[in-house]
Specification:
By secondary structure, the chain is of the alpha+beta class. The protein contains four helices and four strands. Strand 3 (80-84) and strand 4 form a beta hairpin.
Length: 107
């Protein structure tokens, strides 16, 4: 009595693979959406003077810091925000570099 190949096994394996792929895609961050949303929460791209990434921090210089929606940025997933003059230091974690890449594409 050895292993018998049955077509049902292939169907079960394919269904499992489809479920796994769907779960992975749903958990994958959409950095383009995040970048667009972040720009809007910063007061629009006309309000952004300069930005850079330092490890997990996204540092942005704004024309008018009062236009930034810090509460919205926090809800977006920022782990912290520090305001110094017209600059915001937003702690985004490992996604900071990826978001900067997409913001570069928007400019």
């Amino acid at each position: 009595m050895g292993f018998q190949f049955r077509p049902e096994y292939i169907i079960i394996i394919l269904v499992c693979l489809i479920v796994v792929v769907a779960i992975v895609r749903s958990k994958k961050k959409d950095f383009k959406l995040d970048a667009n949303k972040l720009i809007m929460l910063l007061g629009g791209k006309e309000n952004v003077i300069d930005y850079e990434v330092n490890k997990s921090r996204f540092i942005v210089t704004l024309k008018d810091v009062t236009k930034a929606n810090k509460e919205g940025i926090q809800k977006m997933g920022a782990q912290g925000i520090v305001e110094i003059d017209n600059q915001l230091k937003i702690i985004l974690g490992s996604s900071a570099k990826q978001i900067k890449k997409y913001i570069n594409e928007l400019k």
